[in-house]
Amino acid sequence: MFLQRAASQCLRKAGPSNSAFQQALESNQRWAAETAKTDAHFFPTSAQGQSPAILWIGCSDSRVPETTVLGLKPGDVFTHRNIANIVSPTDLSLLSVVEFSVFHLKVKHIVVCGHSKCGGVAGCLANGKLGGPLDIWLQPLRALREKHAGELKGMEVEGQKTFMSKANVQQGVEVMKRIPTVIDAMKERGLQVHGLVYDLASGKLEDVDCDEQANVAALREAAFERK
Hints:
The chain has 227 residues and is of the alpha/beta class.
């Protein structure tokens, strides 16, 4: 009741400049009412706790909401999103999300997902100054571009973007597999790490090849496993 009253007060105070926000609150009220009507147990069950099977590492892009594109519901996916879905071993926010979801919630799958028409990918290919912290944040993408310069040289621009989106996902999966908590979970209970790319034009997810030879996995485990 408190939240409903607060939402109603916000709706009354919202003016023309807040129309998008007002519409969002009104949509929430309709969604909550319809969900409670069709599934009376949904909200009471959700309030008791969460047990998602999937940890989603995605881009902050507003066109790629993980629960929607997967056709799932609130509570099914634990989420971390940032600009260009970069997986950095020094990102404390990401590492905290991984620790909580893998160690405490015991997710069964980790998904690193990129997407087509990614502004971060386009920015790292264009050599333009993005300003502020964005240029620093996207350094891993620029380093990836440098690494694959030979392969990118003969491609059209759209082909370069597709290549970089997939390469970024593959690198994210590699970094994820070097996080000690993930290594332990993969070894002890079969946690799986996947790479995907979402196509904005079709709404479909494409599996990115992140397979590796057994000896590569063994070398990584030997180098990063905690004793």
